[in-house]
Amino acid sequence: MSVKEIAMVSGSYDGAHLSKSFKASETMTPQQYREQDAYLLIQPD
């Protein structure tokens, strides 16, 4: 799901606003967060 799609679903102003808010809260961008926690998305066989 893209940041824009998440913003729309969550009622945020837009993707850029959500990204800025996320970075202020988590001290990393949504993309950095995804890369760091990508192992959570991998499902075992």
UniProtKB/TrEMBL annotation:
<dbReference type="InterPro" id="IPR018060">
    <property type="entry name" value="HTH_AraC"/>
</dbReference>
<feature type="domain" description="HTH araC/xylS-type">
    <location>
        <begin position="1"/>
        <end position="36"/>
    </location>
</feature>
<keyword id="KW-0805">Transcription regulation</keyword>
<dbReference type="InterPro" id="IPR009057">
    <property type="entry name" value="Homeodomain-like_sf"/>
</dbReference>
<protein>
    <submittedName>
        <fullName>Helix-turn-helix domain-containing protein</fullName>
    </submittedName>
</protein>
<keyword id="KW-0804">Transcription</keyword>
